[in-house]
Design a protein that fits this description.
Among the domains are: about 5-315, Beta-galactosidase, Chain A, domain 5 (Distorted Sandwich); about 355-465, Glutathione S-transferase Yfyf (Class Pi), Chain A, domain 2, CATH 1.20.1050.60. With about 775 residues, it is α+β, with helices and mostly antiparallel strands. About 25% of the residues lie in helices and about 25% in strands. The protein is built from 20 helices and 39 strands.
Length: about 775
């Protein structure tokens, strides 16, 4: 087949898939994995199963550490070349790593270095065109024009499968580059090994020093065609081991090479059909990688694995049914898709996994998950999973957090964990609200008393993030701990969720202790300026003070006083009172959204994106702020701001996410907001009603019940909620209770062009109202 025919076939497949989407717009067909692969989204387009251990995706470039931010997912939609396909990726992280076990097909002469993107033929990277590129949940395909190969990828839970169709009778080869890594820098690979067994099975491992230090990953590779020859290269030591599979020769049982800069070249000669490559990974051992390799199928049936993964995605996406115009439908279903990638399974088929102590453990009664971006995902991602995933999945995640706490050398819950290892990234102890919210919403299958003990232990570990001073002073002092203002308010919220769970378990002494700590936000609120501010150990607020200043390691975490002064989700009524009441808060919120940033420069702050005045939707501290108007008795202002945010921050294009998706948090925000409600304070069992962005939605809940949302008169002109009914009865309050969702039923909105300034404005109708 000629190269032009490859491109034509790719374009035809893309056109056919577009027609199918128009004719039968299923949830699966509505997903566009390219959303977020440009701009600041940091998503990847490759193949992954729901919560899959393998994320098999193209890497368009790997950059040195200081340039790696925009390549955090390995793929940039505006890059012209592809290096190859690696098996581990983050979906939307604000930090880069992974990109393990890079494979790239080739024909003709072997090139061992990637070469330069602007010099075709200078290395093994290949040019490609988006015209023939296809991405669907669990499937990716692209034509590598320089390599003259049509590459297709699919993935199961623990395996990835490549299907390479080579042009004509060109000799087929595959390069394995164990040097390549996202978040690249000299010395990242501490050690690696590659082995080739008599039957052509390739196994190995590498240990890396990156975002998580000392990360070990093992792999196993099988090909559906016999090897003609292979060569193992140590590029540091100029060592080459060559092996052949020829009649009459008796190769050694195993070829093996170890070092820090290894590559393998595997050649198959001219083929009469596609070359299929099956790969599995493990954090435990090469033997376990082999176990995982056969865990989903013993053979090389690409279409069977693709079909099984498609069925898994159809089931997962089927938890939400949507009727909406095509652009919104694509945005929301893709958001749901991105919300179902992590936390990912990280236990092998036999239940074993590697924990934060670098030891191998075996899970009893649960499947170990990792990749917990908790500072981001406690807000909406985990609350969404409670509504769209089975109880077992959610209890597995809680049990994984608790297992990690047991294995932790410090005895605390994960902060930001991937591949079982702690990174200590971001602040707070936000595994706590994830666990509390799950328990309070009825998730069982884990030891609640052990969970509460782990939560308390994390909240009282004095060496962590100024917690010793927080406990004694009631706040984190800025002259002893950076980002002190943010840490104080985030600890206070986490403490409130501990109190909520303790009270539910009848542990009154713990509840009283942490209810008191939940009020510590007041110790960092400056009534004179109206902002949350950092204080020194002597009690004075730090000066000079600029509420718009954003600097890493300063008073706030990835933000400033404008964003963090609203972070009191456990007591927003108290915050409103402290700020001067409803009118003052509405005015301050409007000032925030309408702020003139023309004289400000935030180019030094990578995560500050998606600005609407001083509201920063591209980063998480702002995510609940539009809903604050409802707490101040002005829900129609929430409705207008949500329209402004959705229109400006989301679109069904590669640059359609205004900021890092952060393992599903940006996406989960959109899913909830499109449905018409949002969990402002996980642990409260309440959802604040905003306004819907879809004409109809149905939640097929894990308990078998069905909750529908309908929007009458929804249009760009009808921004505002006129009235709301729940199960056919007028609803005058601005919130839903979790038990109302779980019971099933219907929520109906009547939309209109003018604001209804009387609906849900009375104090008793507001969310988390404490009035009797």
């Amino acid at each position: 087949m000629r190269l032009g025919m490859f491109c034509a076939v790719g374009a035809l497949l893309g056109a056919m898939s577009g027609e199918a989407r128009a004719a039968a717009p299923s949830a699966y067909d509505a997903v566009d994995p390219f959303i977020g692969t440009g701009g600041k989204g940091h998503t990847f387009p490759g193949a992954v199963a729901p919560f899959g251990m393998v994320q098999l995706s193209p890497d368009t470039d790997v950059r040195p550490f200081k340039q790696s931010y925009d390549w955090a997912a390995g793929y940039r939609h505006d890059d012209p070349t592809i290096l190859g396909f690696s098996h581990t990726h983050f979906s939307g992280a604000g930090h880069s790593d992974l990109g393990d076990v890079l494979l790239t097909p080739f024909s003709g002469a072997v090139k061992l270095d990637p070469g330069e993107a602007d010099k075709p033929g200078s290395g093994y990277r290949s040019r490609f065109s988006h015209e023939g590129e296809v991405a669907r949940p669990g499937y990716y395909a692209v034509t590598l024009s320089d390599s003259r190969v049509r590459a297709e990828l699919t993935a199961g839970l623990r395996t990835g499968m490549h299907r390479y169709t080579f042009e004509g009778k060109a000799p087929a080869g595959v390069l394995l580059d164990l040097r390549s890594s996202i978040y690249n820098y000299p010395g990242k690979v501490l050690w690696s090994r590659v082995r080739v067994a008599r039957d052509g099975t390739v196994t190995g491992y590498r240990e890396t020093r990156g975002w998580a230090p000392g990360r070990k990953l093992f792999f196993a590779i099988r090909f559906n065609k016999p090897l003609v020859s292979h060569a193992l290269h140590d590029r540091d030591e100029a060592i080459v081991y060559k092996g052949f599979r020829q009649p009459g020769r008796s190769p050694a049982d195993r070829a093996q090479l170890e070092g820090r800069a290894l590559e393998g070249v595997f050649e198959f000669g001219a083929l009469d059909g596609p070359l299929i490559v099956k790969v599995a990974i493990s954090a435990v051992s090469e033997d376990n990688a082999l176990l995982n390799l056969d865990s989903e199928q013993a053979g090389f049936d690409f279409e069977a694995l693709r079909g099984a993964t498609r069925a898994a995605w159809e089931q997962a996406l089927g938890a939400v049914e949507l009727d909406a115009p095509a652009p919104m439908r694509t945005s929301v279903y893709t958001a749901l898709y991105h919300s179902l990638i992590a936390p990912s399974v990280f236990a092998d088929a036999d239940g074993r996994y590697r924990g934060p102590d670098d030891q191998v453990h075996e899970a009893e009664g649960f499947t170990f998950h990792s990749t917990f971006s908790l500072w981001d995902t406690f807000r909406a991602e985990h609350p969404l999973l409670l509504l769209v995933q089975p109880e077992k999945r959610n209890s597995d995640m809680v049990n994984s957090l608790l297992a990690s706490q047991r294995h932790s050398p410090y005895g605390i819950l994960p902060v930001w964990q991937f591949h079982g290892l702690e990174t200590w990234t971001m602040i707070g102890y936000h595994a706590v609200p994830v666990i509390a919210d799950a328990w309070l919403k009825g998730i069982r299958g884990f030891d609640a008393n052990a969970a509460l003990d782990a939560m308390v232990q994390s909240a009282t570990y004095a060496p962590y993030g100024g917690l010793g001073d927080y406990t004694s002073l009631g706040y984190v002092p800025i002259d002893r701990e950076p980002e002190a203002a943010s840490k104080t308010v985030e600890y206070a919220y986490d403490d409130w969720t501990i109190a909520r769970m303790a009270r539910a378990l009848g542990k009154e002494d713990i509840a009283r202790t942490f209810e008191a700590r939940a009020g510590n936000w007041r110790n960092t609120f400056d009534a004179k300026s109206g902002f949350i501010r950092a204080r020194r150990a002597d009690g004075a607020f730090r000066t000079p003070f600029d509420p718009t200043a954003i600097n890493y390691g300063s008073d706030y975490t990835e933000g400033n006083a404008w964003q963090y002064s609203w972070f009191v989700p456990q007591d927003l009524g108290g915050l409103i009172k402290a700020m001067g009441g409803d009118a003052a808060v509405v005015k301050k919120l409007d000032t925030m959204f309408d702020y003139d940033n023309s004289k400000l420069d935030y180019s030094h702050a990578e995560d500050i994106a998606g600005l609407i005045g001083q509201y920063i939707h591209g980063n998480e501290p702002s995510h609940h702020v539009a809903y604050m108007y409802s707490f101040a008795g002005a829900p129609w202002r929430t409705q207008a701001r949500l329209k402004q945010i959705v229109d400006s921050q989301y679109k069904p294009t590669p640059d359609g996410l205004s900021g890092n998706d952060d393992l599903g948090q940006m996406s989960s925000w959109l899913v909830f907001t499109a449905l018409g409600f949002y969990p402002v304070a996980p642990g409260s069992n309440e959802y604040v009603i905003g306004r819907p962005f879809v004409e109809r939605a149905a939640l097929n809940l894990p308990n078998g019940k069905r909750f529908t949302v309908t929007a009458e008169g929804l249009s760009d002109a009808n921004v505002y909620v006129g009235k709301v009914s729940l199960n056919g009865r007028p609803l005058e309050r601005g919130f839903l209770r979790h038990e109302e969702l779980l019971a099933g039923g219907s929520l109906h909105f009547s939309m209109q062009a003018k604001p209804n300034t009387s609906w849900a404005t009375k104090p008793q109708a507001r969310p988390m109202n404490k009035a009797p």
